[in-house]
Design brief:
heterodimer; A: about 270 residues; alpha+beta; 8-stranded antiparallel beta sheet; 6-stranded antiparallel beta sheet; 14 strands; B: about 400 residues; alpha/beta; Purple Acid Phosphatase, chain A, domain 2; 2 domains; 5-stranded mixed beta sheet; 13 helices; about 30% helix
Chain lengths: ~270, ~400
């Protein structure tokens, strides 16, 4: 295993890009301004839904293997997967929807029956990255080596990149982020969709990408967690008092939510 | 002891916090002052309108540098003074002092972040605890929030609101300022009722038409609804460039509205422009609906990472509007990554980095000058077992 211990790597630092070249991989994280109004209009017309208020549409995290395999994480492809079916608006309503509806009847506004084109206003997306080259296929043989990742190996490259964020008209938060760490023996990416709908629910979709250098498999694990707002809020330690900022901390929320389902896939490098 | 406001303002400009007892006194006096203000304050141009600041105090100092200092320049602030940025306390302190010192030359409108619930999540509460060691200052300021006015009309021509849901019927009547009811009726009695308007992705909200009798009915009901009642208003909604009239929002409450609604609202109220803040935009300002509605955004490089421009809107005596665009303040101290973490998403308490090692360097990548011979991130004093940020799973 001498090739692994004598790792050579090169850090990439350009204007708005950081990254690392290691083994046969090149990692790039690009961070720039939010989209301009023109870009937002174009994206909105293209996707058919309103764009989140903080949209880093030109940011990306990408990993590319010399074999041609490439995986990229970007906001707009993620938003393209937001549900726009006719039922998509029925899944989650803001906490006071019922009361609003009742009041509306009393105010004789029922003549307004036009409902805007439905879309999942929580921006829930099962996006797992944009793949070029070898595709991912479901597997039961491979899994992420958690023990390997728990070792305090030196981190050669670490990065966090926010792709979009929205406060859901003061009804909570929807945030899509990537995190990556590269160690001498492996790397891990976490793409996280975090959703809080106040007084309704919490939801986390995690996509983890793991690769051990020297192997030909790239593992992708997707998991979903969900729980009611009330149950989660009740877990805030008493010592926090009135400080509710933990409800914006996806790491803390994640640790409080029961896991619901997960799926493992593998892509083979050629 | 007599309150010396000029001294308070000076020390805030010197970036020094006021004592807790001083903040208490200032908030109490300002509440008294605001109590006599209507829900719709009428002012005259010239005035400089400022949008969201969000605790970016150094950028607020830049605004005074660009737009002029009080009382030489009249200011109208459209809300969202706190949360997100690192200096909400300083921002609220100086704005409150200026309002108290120059009541007719400084107007403070309530934004959707001027609320207890929102500030408990988005940073202001945490910042008060950190800077004063208790929640008292947060209580003083959030009590003050309840008294802030909800809208301003410039020369009977330009209607100004924050654009978030702070402007909603319920808060109008919960605030206990009786006379507001009349002003409200007078201004909006006819077909269109303007209300809490909430929309992040789009401009200000309007509500479908309500007849006067029904309005009164609704108002009485709202008065009896307890504080924890939902934001269920009949009156908040999102503009929708894709249509002209009202439609029901996909969130299950509220409406979206189109250009015709804005036009109708302006026509029926004899005004020619709606001005709001609230919506982040890369350019720092936005003009929509055939120059009938504009947005002013005053937090450059929002959250220290959006890279956006900001603006203040200078309204002249002839009603002319000029957006004065600016960038993030050069001396704006970019917060360390760890400080950001505690205020923004995905945070972990800074206590993990009590020894001050590492997070910043690591976040910015290990490249550049930080590269050691091996190029490895040296965890140094960081206990990797505890370092859940970098060693995430």
């Amino acid at each position: 295993m001498s090739t692994l211990t004598s790792t050579t790597h090169r850090l990439i630092k350009e204007d708005q890009t950081t990254g690392i070249a290691i083994h046969d991989w090149e990692v790039r994280s690009h961070k720039t301004s939010i989209l301009s109004s023109k870009e937002i209009d174009a994206a909105s017309a293209d996707l058919g839904i309103p764009i989140p208020e903080m949209i880093f549409g030109n940011n990306f995290l990408s990993i590319e293997h010399k074999s041609g395999f490439k995986l990229e994480f970007k906001a707009l492809p993620a938003l393209a997967m937001v549900d726009q079916s006719s039922k998509s608006s029925d899944l989650i309503k803001v906490s006071y929807a019922r009361e609003w509806f009742d009041k509306r009847s009393m105010a004789n506004q029922e003549h307004i029956t036009d409902v805007i084109k439905p879309y999942d206003w929580t921006y829930t997306t099962k996006y797992g990255g944009t793949v070029l080259g070898s595709q991912f296929e479901e597997t039961t043989n491979d899994s992420i080596d958690i023990e390997q990742l728990k070792k305090p190996d030196p981190i050669l490259f670490y990065d966090e990149n926010i792709l979009f964020e929205d406060e859901l008209a003061d009804n909570g938060a929807a945030i899509l982020t990537t995190k990556m760490r590269v160690m001498p023996s492996c790397f891990l990416i976490l793409l996280r969709f975090f959703l809080r709908v106040d007084d309704v629910l919490f939801r986390i979709h995690d996509t983890r990408i793991y690769h051990r250098f020297g192997t030909n498999s790239v593992i992708r694990e997707c998991s979903t967690k969900e729980s009611s707002y009330r149950d989660t809020r009740a877990r805030i330690p008493r010592s926090s008092g009135e400080d509710l900022s933990l409800l914006l901390n996806s790491n803390w929320v994640s640790s409080q939510l029961p896991e619901q389902e997960s799926r493992v896939e593998v892509a083979r490098l050629e | 002891m007599v309150l010396d406001l000029d001294a308070c303002i000076d020390s805030l400009f010197q970036r020094q916090l006021l004592a807790e007892s001083v903040i208490k006194e200032i908030c109490e006096k300002t509440k008294e002052l605001l109590m006599s203000e209507s829900n719709v304050v009428h002012i005259k141009a010239p005035v400089t309108v400022v949008g969201d600041i969000h605790g970016q105090f150094y950028d607020l100092l830049e605004i005074f540098k660009i737009g002029g200092y009080c009382p030489d320049t009249n200011y109208l602030f459209l809300g969202d003074y706190v949360d997100r940025g690192l200096y909400s306390v300083e921002t609220m302190s100086i704005l409150t002092c200026l309002k108290l010192r120059y009541p007719d030359r400084v107007q403070l409108v309530r934004g959707n972040h001027e609320s207890r619930a929102v500030t408990q999540t988005y940073g202001f509460y945490t910042e008060c605890m950190k800077k004063y060691g208790s929640a008292q200052v947060w209580h003083y300021f959030t009590d003050l929030f309840d008294y802030l006015t909800l809208s301003v009309v410039i020369d009977n021509m330009i209607f100004c609101v924050h654009g978030g849901k702070a402007l909603e019927l319920r808060s109008l009547f919960d605030s206990g300022i009786k006379q507001q009811t009349n002003v409200f009726k007078e201004l909006f009695a006819d077909e269109i009722l303007i209300g809490p308007c909430y929309s992040l992705e789009k401009p200000l909200g309007l509500s479908p038409s309500i007849h006067t009798i029904d309005q009164i009915k609704v108002m009485d009901r709202f008065k009896e609804i307890p504080h924890e009642g939902p934001m269920a208003d009949l009156v908040w909604s999102d503009p929708d460039p894709g249509r002209e009239e009202f439609a029901v929002s996909p969130r299950g409450a509220g409406y979206t509205f189109g250009s015709l609604v804005v036009e109708k609202f302006l026509h029926e109220n004899g005004m020619d422009h709606i001005l709001r803040a609230h919506q982040l935009c890369m350019e720092g300002f936005q003009v929509l609906f055939d120059d009938q509605l504009s947005t002013v955004w005053s937090a450059p490089n929002y959250c220290y990472r959006c890279g956006n421009l900001a603006s203040i809107l200078e309204v002249g005596v002839e009603g002319e509007r000029h957006f004065n665009v600016f960038e993030a303040a050069p001396e704006n101290e970019r917060p360390t990554a760890e400080a950001q973490r505690t205020l923004f998403s995905n945070g972990i308490p800074t206590s993990l980095y009590g020894n001050g090692v590492g997070a910043g360097a690591a976040i910015n990548g290990v490249g550049g000058n930080d590269t050691t011979a091996s190029g490895f991130l040296n965890p140094g004093g960081i206990d990797s077992a505890q370092d859940t940020i970098h060693y995430f799973l």
